[in-house]
Design a protein that fits this description.
By secondary structure, this protein is α/β, with parallel strands linked by helices. It has 14 helices and 9 strands. The protein binds iron/sulfur cluster.
């Protein structure tokens, strides 16, 4: 595997100033003195894409040094943030104008602020995005994690991002060691699927191939919300990895317990990546049944198995020539079966990763 550029996510801190209802990580923060150092970051391999995330990454005082180091080995960097530390974000983007910024906003003002528990969080995040746009940054946008209580805001928030000509990344609530959460679940599956359906149709009607691919990703989110098998294989730990604030290299952020391939503070990258622990983790990934559908594991799969989303997009673009609504959520067998009473909510709940209802 040596020499091949990888896809990496660096979780630079578990400290967070938000208190989101779907992520309890803020209750288990890392200590600043334990967090991944520049020396450890120097050991990372060449990457074609790096996501910097947290916690809230802009809490790190040395975030600029981290970005500077990662740019030496990464073709593209995107930072996921809640957008609260406007001045720090702007300051960093002045120095690194090619960096991507995704600001997590969970809906319109009231919805976002109640989910994220961050005072004036919507206005802070939104005004940060506007300032970045005024500065001429190109790779900026919203990130929204859908759950029962914000599904109605999905399309209105997309419309805002579309008017601003910004990116719009979506997710649905997940459970994992990373989120310190086992109780996330979507109860109102039909309502949430309908919101995704409307978004998918808007994306398909656009003139942007990138948005058509996003339509496929959101189609996969409907499949996930109904607790079904992933639409694409999960190849995490083969050409994609995460590093946590303690220097532990892990396959992804979706496992129930942390699965460690090795530690950057104690080992070289080659020792970790080619070691026995990494192989053992890869064996587990091969039979993982958690069926996550998060961009970190889906984006590499969409590139690797490009013909699957490609055919899906071609078929729906063709349909859009004749139909006002090229996509229907009832294309998914499970959505029809649920509507027709052939499968119950309890059965779907049992297939999910939520442990509270089992
Ligand atoms: S499905 Fe993939 S991303 Fe999710 S926990 Fe399993 S290996 Fe990780």
């Amino acid at each position: 595997m040596a020499g091949k550029k990888l896809n990496g996510t660096v979780i630079v801190t578990y400290r967070c100033n938000a208190k989101c209802n779907m992520c309890k990580r803020y209750q288990s923060p890392s200590l600043p003195e334990d967090e991944i150092t520049i020396e450890a970051i120097k050991k990372l391999p060449e990457m074609y894409f790096t996501n910097i995330t947290g916690g809230e990454p802009f809490i790190r005082e040395d975030i600029k040094d981290i970005v500077c180091e990662l740019y030496k080995k990464s073709d593209r960097i995107v930072i996921s943030t809640n957008g609260f530390f406007t001045e720090k974000i702007i300051d960093l983007c002045k120095e690194f104008p090619k960096v991507g910024i995704r600001i997590s906003i969970e809906g319109l003002e009231e919805t976002n602020n109640s989910i994220r528990g961050l005072e004036d969080g919507f206005n802070k995040g939104y005004s940060t995005l506007i300032k970045l746009k005024e500065m001429g940054l190109k790779d900026i946008g919203f990130g929204m994690t859908v759950q029962d209580c914000n599904a109605c805001d999905l399309v209105p928030l997309y419309d805002i991002s579309d008017d601003l000509d910004m990116e719009f990344a979506t997710a649905a609530v997940h459970n994992s060691f990373y989120f310190v959460e086992t109780g996330n679940i979507i109860h109102e599956r039909e309502k949430v699927a309908l919101a995704f359906e409307e978004l998918i149709n808007k994306l398909l009607r656009s003139n942007s191939p990138k948005k058509w691919m996003r339509a496929y990703f959101n189609h996969g989110l409907i499949n996930y919300v109904y607790s079904q098998k992933r639409l694409l294989p999960c190849d995490m730990s083969f050409d994609t990895f995460f590093v946590d604030p303690y220097g532990d290299v892990v396959p992804c952020n979706g496992t129930r317990e942390k699965e460690v391939m090795g530690n950057l503070n104690k080992q070289s990258w080659d020792e970790i990546w080619n070691g026995e622990k990494a192989e053992a983790v890869r064996k587990k990934v091969r039979c993982c049944s958690r069926n996550c559908w998060m961009i970190g594991s889906v984006s590499p799969a969409m590139h690797k198995y490009i013909w699957v989303p490609g055919m899906w997009v071609m078929w729906h673009k063709l349909k859009s020539l004749f139909a006002k609504k090229p996509y229907s959520m009832y294309e998914n067998k499970i959505v029809r079966e649920y509507r027709d009473g052939k499968v119950t909510k309890e059965e779907l709940d049992r297939c999910s990763t939520c442990e509270v209802l089992k």
